[in-house]
Fold this protein.
Amino acid sequence: MKQDRVKASLQKFADGVVLQAKANLARENKNVTGNLTQSIDYDLEVGPNSFFLRWKMDDTAPYWKFQDLGVQGKSSSAKAPNSPFKFGSGKGGMKGGLTRAINQWVQARRFQFRDEKGRFMSYDNTAFLITRSVYNKGIRTTNFFTNPFRLQFQQLPQEIASAFALDLKDFLQFTLQPKPPKE
């Protein structure tokens, strides 16, 4: 298979994943600031006997992985039963990241609960209650990226998958790895 045809097929694949992932985020209304949506992109390098495809998304945190794969709650895994992430496990995000993110979300949306007397609670109190609930119940799996990836992967020409002996799970894992430094 000619190198330019391989590159064109892989670009079509990657463009399709990016387009659908962005549409999924918009539909899910999961990205208040727009930073995650704007950051979705890829790097592609094609050589005579190999290729390198790396997905680029908001590098500030593994936030996009939490949105895609979900996070099991401390007391319940119902929202993300198959997620590799779990609140309170010490893996994944930075300490206090959930609290800061919820606080930003609450303030960006100007969202406040009311107390039993009907008065608006502070943003901090509202964020605390939401954070506690999210921590205990988890974050629902959206597959905003995984589903488009799988769909587009199935549409790759069979000769590309055969030529590189690609397996969906291995390819997804490989393309999500950081790019090795150039010498």
